Amino acid sequence: MANIKSQIKRVKTNAARTERNRAAKSELRTWIRKVRTAVDAGDAEAAKAALVTASAKLDKAVTKGVLHANQAANKKSRLAKRVNAL
């Protein structure tokens, strides 16, 4: 553990941010999985609804700094392509 006061604070804030980012990424993976399972099941309505939510979650992750904007755009594009193929 660090001895310097600012570094002790930095360790605590990094741990809190890591936990928050981990939760956000987990939620993203859940919504992406919901889109994929709906597409695999052939359920177009459920896939479209899940895609809307997943896209919003991806955009939110970008604004919070969890994901890079290009990575989110790529994920949204791939998901939309799969949903539109139904």
UniProtKB/TrEMBL annotation:
InterPro entries in the cross-refs: Ribosomal_bS20 (IPR002583), Ribosomal_bS20_sf (IPR036510)
Pfam families assigned to the protein according to its UniProt record, in alphabetical order: Ribosomal_S20p
Superkingdom in the source lineage: Bacteria
Keywords: Ribonucleoprotein, Ribosomal protein, RNA-binding, rRNA-binding
A cellular-component GO term for this protein: small ribosomal subunit
GO biological process: translation
Region (Disordered): 1-22
Similarity annotation: Belongs to the bacterial ribosomal protein bS20 family.
Protein's recorded name: Small ribosomal subunit protein bS20
Source organism: Janibacter limosus
Lineage summary: Bacteria, Bacillati, Actinomycetota, Actinomycetes, Micrococcales
Name of the gene this protein is made from: rpsT
